[in-house]
## 1
Amino acid sequence: MREASMISASEIGIDLPRERLLDWLYQMYLIRAFEETVEQLYAAGKMHGTMHLSIGQEAVAVGAIAALRPDDYITSTHRGHGHAIAKGQDIRAMLAELLGKETGVCRGRGGSMHLADLERGNLGANGIVAGGIPIAVGAGLSIRLQGQDRVVLCFFGDGAANHGNFHEGLNMAAIWRLPVVFLCENNQYAMSMPIHKAMAVPRVADRAAAYGIPGEAVDGMDVRAVYRAVRGAVERARRGEGPTLIEAITYRYKGHSKSDRQVYRAKEEVQAWMARDPIVRFRDELIAQGWLSETEAAALEARARQAIEEALRAAEGDPEPAVTQLTEGVYAEDPSMPPFWIRRTFGPETAVEPPPGTRELSYAEALREAMAQAMAADERVFLMGEDVGVYGGAFGVTQGLIDRFGPERVRDTPISENTIVGAGLGAALTGMRPIVEMQFMDFVTLAMEQTVLQAAKVRYMFGGKARVPLILRLPGGSGTGAAAQHSESLEAWFVHVPGLKVVAPATPYDAKGLLLAALADENPVIFVEHKLLYRTRGAVPEAPYVVPLGRAVVRRAGRDLTIVAYSLMVLRAIEAAERLAMEGIEAEVIDLRTLKPYDAETVIASVKKTGKLLIVHEAPLLGGFGGELAAHIAQSEAFAYLEAPIVRLGGADVPIPYHPRLERAAVPQVEDIVEAARRLARLEL
């Protein structure tokens, strides 16, 4: 493969007004002064946590963002101070953030690694290497779907070029010709590993050929060279010609973070790069061209340092967050019912839990109808996942939707789980309402970074300023003979993650109503669909309606004990209760419907009536959701009414086996529920 050549400004001409070039120099001075000030504050113990400085890399941030328009987006990195300043972020709010102030750009919740300003198009710095790449892809997809004339500039480091997100993201952006410019800041080290030991090709830009997109290496110590390369890539993206990969060859003078002892590189190497300092170089070029005098250059630098000093003085006097505000901003809540999106989309008279009527649909058909109604009413709703289009989804749930809404809005993806979720997140952050499907719940393990470290956290990390209306549909559970890697019940994992909501409907009626409620929610929702429920049938109203999240339902009244379940186990619990009734034991069956938020009040009221509680779920007993619910009830007013210990019935501590008898034995069956309930009712524990 031919090595990508490196372009410098001496090879090109840039015809720009003097005032603009002087502004570039000022911005580089401002970034340098900001980071030198921050370094001093950390050294003095006045700042908390960690920091990652980009001193030496100023030309990349300034030159690249100069090629954008104000309404274009960027995704940034943990080394993102320069990106934020070049994008126009307020330096006082940035310093207040690093000082942990309530006036910080993220209200002191994000810190140095998570600077964001959604109003200015900065979709966030990211503490996860390559974490911003899928988000940039999603923002590019959002631009495409909304028909906007925007571009996304995605910053990442050389270490990220060896991450799966890089390969998945570039591939997805390339096949869809998305308006994304991928900019690798190759500062020679991924923490301590030098780039030449991490890749078998000479340049990161060489990898562009694998995705059929242009790749170009530029001198990242030369602001004009960076501008020229990014400007060309941005123009190409605006023309609808797709993404470009640019590698800016640069250097960080400081260590990876404040604790880095830099034992992996020689001082002579650092000094050699510092001799090519981008600020000094650009200043001297402007002086040589007669556009700037030494005195004017010194005045520009002094003005930048004064701006930082004034911003710091102001930020230091700002208030810190109150502990009473700790949980503010984790979730975006809409207390109205029906929710605002439902009222706007389907009308203010949209029903909340209406009578089911007599029309019957299967569980899969109810889900499909909910998606179709939402997509017909709101063009921002779209579906994305593996084989969701022509194939109709692994279980046929999305069958026919592509014929009605087309391949743009029913979008088949490559097998790239993490980037599928991340693209959904990026689209949600920029105005869309994506429904993302994993073929099997098990496969979400390949997307945990974008689900747990990104989607769940961005709202809080960004000071409660982000909205993430994202649904992640997960077909889960055993019973199909698919064995250990296609049969898991992982819902308890997501209940444990602040920022996520978890829904697990048991009936076709709830499947439709809860999916529409999840679409109306402004938070990421994990939507669990048990595979054995898809063919079950029940009454479902034709018009759109909602089943509120966090509201359980009593499926069967009883006086002798309470059985709490969700998803498939609700059906088995009802069948068990009917058998128990033949023995004179009347069990009350409660369907939680949602696990986060969950309706503890309904459970408490039932336990106060029956005095006994049995919790049933398919997931392994150890660490399952039943433990959380049992603890809550034991600490509630219902404890005084308990006549026996709370009993939990869950799956065995074993991967789901292939053999049918073993598979049955691994999870609770109707007879298991009957036996456990009988013993509890008769106090035979």
## 2
Amino acid sequence: MSTSPRLTDEDLDRLIKARAPKPYKPGEFELYVNRLVSPAQVDRFLQAAGQPGNGDAKQPAVDLPIRRLGADLMLDETGSIRGTDTAREIPPDYRIGIGDELLVTLWGAVSGEIRVTVDRNGRITIPRVGPVLVAGVRYADLSDTISAPVSKVFRNFKVSASLGRLRYIRIYVTGYTAQPGAYSVSSLSTVLTGLMRAGGPSAAGSFRNIELRRQGQTVARFDLYSLLLQGDQSADRPLQANDVLYVGPVGPQVAVLGSINKPAVLEIKSGETVSDALAMVGGLSTVADRTRVATERLTERLGRRLIEFNLPADGKQPLENGDVMRVFSSISAVLPQNKQFKHVRIDGEVNRPGEYILPPNATLQDALQAAGGLTADAYVFGTEFTRESVRVAQQENYDRALRDLETEFTRATSTQRAISADEAAAQQARAAGVTRLIERMRAVRPNGRLVLQMSQKSPSLPVLRIEDGDRLAIPALPNTVSVFGSVFNAGSYLYRDGSSIDDVMKLAGGATRGADTASTFVLRANGSVVSARQESGWFGGNTFAGLPAVPGDTVFVPEELDKTTFTQSMKEWTQILYQFGLGAAALQAIRK
């Protein structure tokens, strides 16, 4: 029994390996759009593309955030083009051809199973029956076609015929495709599977202008967007031997970025509009600003021109080649303060502590009212009010002050000269101490507290509009005052009405001998500071000690830092006089 030669699975594997999948290669406009979104990602992509071995399908790929619509259909999980046919169910109108393998099963009065291949004459040979012409027969009619000649020999039987291995046909993929050439594909292949074998359109190829040519005639035009966007497979026709797939040049391209469901680079046809482009990318996202679309128009030769389309009024505006459309997010846009609803948190001595959403022009009084008002134990003067914008400003100023301190310290250290080994060691010790101090200061983070200017007996908070993220903590009335620093017995003490700062100091035993009493300060419960230097009289009198203390005060007495012992001073003067004596002796020797 003679059969026509056909491609085996091993032959097909060799053909696929000979055409190893290549990595995805974007076009210039596609790279430009990706640079607008993520320049660093584009640099990594180009770097990976230039590495040896990157064409290997097993090489991990670096993805671009934005691709041409339809490119993902041609790529596998490694970012390389697909290199195999896609199996599908045999349709009823499939025509049996030379090289197809048939599996014929008979049962009843006669039983048997034979596997035969359609020869070059379009026939199969059945034992005791003879040759049967099957080429050109529809797959749905195959069993009846074989049953007719078998019934002339046998009675009381049934026949079932199915396809085994399919024949392979040769097609040609030409034009602007990733890998043009001749391909052996399954006889079930369609236009789409043929394109995938060739890697699909290249960066210069069209996804919307693909022609199926047969015997010199264009028998179908395929727009891949119809399949991708509407699921229309009507143009995805089965291929026949010697068919030619021609991929035309890419048409005008636009990009749609921002708050949309699938950002992409689109190929547009003449007359397609802003609304059409938005529909191709799945429409606007849930949080998109639905009133406008900003468009960067590259056709303006004098520079990039920005055009804003108002939606939906300008939805019918046509697009131009190179347009980059941006849809903005409605939640990322920062509204003016007088239009923002405020999210605040209120803790402490209020009737309903918690988080609240308040109207745009709400004040501190409105926040307290929302929290049910103050309790009987509320200490309004000690209210801690923190604000995020204040914290950010405090952190910036604090970091700037630390940098200035480090610069000044470095300058002072570089200009110091030690006159002895002991002094050099002392300078190193001071330098190490300052370095540790700066490191500890760097670990401190401002909390954004805003000092509310009000008196100690004020019954309510000042009138102040709140901002989003504000936090309000109202403590209970304290009954203590605290003293820390260079005193004999630091700690907290019961507050007594009418007490002064001097009375509070006496509770702690007063200042020690090494205290810097001129720099003593009081941190009030509302966050304000009163210092001894601030309250000094015009002629040197000090009214600081007589200031009345208030509940929650913290008095701090610093240590005197700018002092030296008598022994250290005498040692330094001895060194100076010794050097002076050597200099005087030298002058006497020169004079003689």
## 3
Amino acid sequence: MTVTFLSYIAPHAISSAHAAGTNDAIALMEQQIHAMQAQLNTMKQKQAAENRRIRAELARQRELIEADPYASRAHLLGQNTTGPYGVAPHNGTGHDDVFGLASSAIITPSRTASTPYGELTAIPPAHPDLYSPLRRGQLQIGGVRLTLGGYLEAAGVWRSRNSAADIASAYNAIPWHNQPTSHMNEFHQTERQSRLAALVEGMLTKKLEADAYVETDFQGAGSSSNSRQSNSYVLRARVVYGELKDSADGWYILGGQSWSLITLFNKGMFARDEQTPMVIEAQYVPGFNWTRNAQFRVVKTFGPHERYAAGLSIENPSSVPAGVSPCSTAAHHCTTTDRLTGTNVNNPSTYYTSDPAPDLIAKVAADPGWGHYELTGVMRFFRDRNSTVGSGSNHTTIAGGGGGGMVLPLIDKKLYFQASGLVGTGLGRYGSTNMPDYTYNRTGGVTALPEASILLGLYGNPMKNLKLYSYAGAESVLSRRAFDEGSNHYGYGNRNFDMRGCSTELATNCAASGNIHTVAQATGGFWYTAAKGDYGTLLVGGQYAHTHVQAFSGLGGKPKSDADMVFMSLRYQPFN
């Protein structure tokens, strides 16, 4: 019995003791859990309070930035600027800088394309690092960066001979002395060169960048545009293109409307780096080779720092015919067709020539370390058709030529020299004067005119806020392309064209306007930076130009005309 009782009591005692120990452990764990929950709640409360503080700080800083977005960060927030790498570790409230940006500036200073013309017109440059701090005039939308550019201009122009032109002169329309307007001057004020520009950039892949650029001004004219009352001149497309850039492999592909590849560059062969003259005049300078037209361009760069480049551009054709065709007389019983009046969305007030193929332009450029150098070639195609009743025939002519240019830093950052030129046949379109490209031969076919152009320039910065420039340029049809049949005179520059009335007011026997030999100009001017601050740049400019026009000699002599021009400009660049 004793043994049996003990054997019964012992296990139950052990079980009770074990149960008591387990309950104590559970109670201890519950206490620890409650303590942890209390700590977690406390942490949540602290985190919520910190979040509210950060949101309030962000709102305060945003209000300060919006009130003065270009002020320095330290100035706005009272930060200590002695932190490592220029980062201020604390603001005036003793809290960490929640933005984590450098204190030097929230938005870094703006930049323009690094050309003289780019600085004067606030052309946005390319930005190799699309994740760098924003600059003035920039917005970031996700991975896309938008850079604004352009300027607002109030300009005035005075000409000694009245050609009814705005800020862009018509050099080949300077009146001859038989016209009353040759004996009258003109003055106009204009805002139409004011320019709006936007550059959009983004990365398609880790190595392939895409950008799009749009540049517009108000030098278009609609059917109701006038300068009498509302001055309703219209917005026009200057430059509109898209571009793919693989800088690692040196490939650049551009499509859209841009400056022709024939235009001299300031460096390399990159879009928006063109060496455009610094003048106020919107038609630039005679001898300056350029167009802005639709094109498809491929450029390949070589060497360290992309110092060498080769490019090919396929560009929209548009030729300039001139002279008298033998089919213009009743004796030949034929009709020459080489142009059509615009239809649909083309301008019905002008003509479009029947060119059969695009203009082809090739260029190589080098920046070996001192100066910039270029060689250029161009090929063009002209066509007309001579028709008689029931039949006809097409005539196609290939024309073109070559040239080159250079930009030399005579005194680094102080004085520069530039020179460019072009020679060949059928190149009139590519000059500022818009000289003719071709005339007609004995069969009524196309004959390309031999032509040449040259431009020399000298410019610099004698003072920090002052830019001075001077240019001299000329464009010329080098020789006549003309013939006679009986008493009729054809072609361009014919010696028997009647020039006897070119010096007599209201005389009608003056064929000079359709037979211009040479247009030359010398010009000079200045740009002064009157003010530059957080909210833009104010420029004041002045320019004087003397233009000389000479026709081929004919019956009665070799007529000539000239014009003096004075331009003034006040430009405000809000994003520069």
## 4
Amino acid sequence: MINDIPDLEQRLKDLPDKPGVYIMRDKNGRIIYIGKAVSLKNRVRQYFRSSTNHSPRIRSMIAHIADFEYILTDSEVEALVLECSLIKEYHPKYNVSLRDDKHYPYIKITVNEPYPRIMLARSTEPDGARYFGPYPNSAAVKETIETLKGLFPVRTCKRNLTSKKKERPCLDYYIGQCMAPCQKDIPAEQYADVIRQVCDFLDGRQEGIIDKLKDQMQQAIDALNFEKAAVLRDKINAISSLQEKQKVVSTELIDQDVIGVFQQDEDSMIQVFFIRGGRMIGAEHFLLEDTGHDDTASLLASFMEQFYSGINFIPSEVLLPVWPEDGQTIEKWLSDKKGLRIQLKVPIKGEKRKLVEMAEENAKEALERFSLKIKADKQRTQGALEQLAEILGLNQMPWRIEAFDISHIQGTDTVASMVVAEGGRPKNSDYRRFRISTPQNDDFASMAEVVERRYSKGLAEKRELAAKGLDIENGKFSAFPDLILIDGGRGQLNAARQILTGLGLDYIPVIGLAKENEEIYIPDKPEPLVLPKDSPALQLLQRIRDEAHRFAISYHRSLRGKSALQSVLDNIPGIGDKRRKALMEYFGSIENIKRAGVEELASVEAMNISAAKKVYEYFHSI
């Protein structure tokens, strides 16, 4: 393929000896790989020379290169940032794919407010608040916050306390989990002292808090106040329990991430330990498929770029098993991102080396634990697709499958759904739903309508993109399937097939799956195909068909819910869209509105006494 690139040698000679990002495309113009380089001339030329040093994944990528382009940047760090951005936007096939990329939660203390509160935050912001974390998941944050609420009576509510108006305290005050600053009788200094204790606790300085609580408990015992002593004892036990979960792993009371890598066969596993103030507050592992033969330094660099581009909090130190490719650039990028110096270290011995080895051992165990799951998953997806291609006599594996379903109740509010599976897995971003306008209670006509609308739109979009010189696969409807699955029997299948033939798309295979006996209907075959219940191909089709049914039903229910809401509240004089929305947001359901009194109805934003009386009288006169 690469020999077909026009003027290849001259284009390689003309590459600038400057930093930038290079983009590889296949024969269809699709982006298949994105990389960065300190010197574009040196890096890009490597791909078109001897490939003996390349991993199998990169060799496969090289074989599919039909063209390349590049973008110049002012520095290596700018190239790294641009590369991360483009990879997230295009998800090239041959780049290392961090599927587990996500935003980690934090504990936020709003010390920028007069009476700070404690809350879960999905990201950090430059707002003057203090952030602790990141934690591996929101459950860990919620558990820690619940422990803190039991230890320190600070508020978690969203009340605006800037006004001088005294407010009624909530339940937390009465169960001893909030000092109720909303009552305006708590000195700011007293509240601030409690907040300092919370921050000390989250910083890992918990021993001093335990010592203070033990002293208070002993004083309570000496005063024969056993009830107070029991409360203090429970607080000490809660802190001790949390300490057991947050194991002390470092004598250095600093923030660290420890990364371990294990590669075996086709895959790699990366383990990350989150250490804050010397305590491990969480851990996470990441499976990187088809990277088992990649160079570890290159793999580690790709992982760190994707991982830390989605993380707001960067620790002051990152411990690694090997020095990553372009490590100095990554170090500078992380330092610029944090605004403080970040150090990447590859420890050789001592406590830090043991931490890295522990991360590597955990990565190994995780990969071995997932190996059986991976094999089973491939059997459910790739194995099922290969079997399906063989059964249906297809020339290639049906990588993209689109499934259609019709939903209505007694012929009303007919809707249709289209769900998409790629590689045997749902692709939710490509799901579509349709309101059907054909005569009610005619499944055949409804199926014909949705198929015609979907593929007519796709053909029009392809023409529009081609006219603009854009990738014809990048539209909302322009990606066409390798197989179409219709929920239903011969009638629904024929209706869909007739539309496809009229659109010139009869080359796309289409089948029907009837739910009653799980029979597969194939065009031009008089008898349906019945597969064994344990057939991976049948089970895959059932999962996709059931997902289409679920998606259609959920859409139908939402429409019926809106219709019911409109039919009830819109019958009340003086209740328009604004008041209807306000009532539903406040009460949550029609039943709660029915049970409300006039005064409670009038207290809702956008309502008044007159409107409240009309609502009350409407429901109580029925």
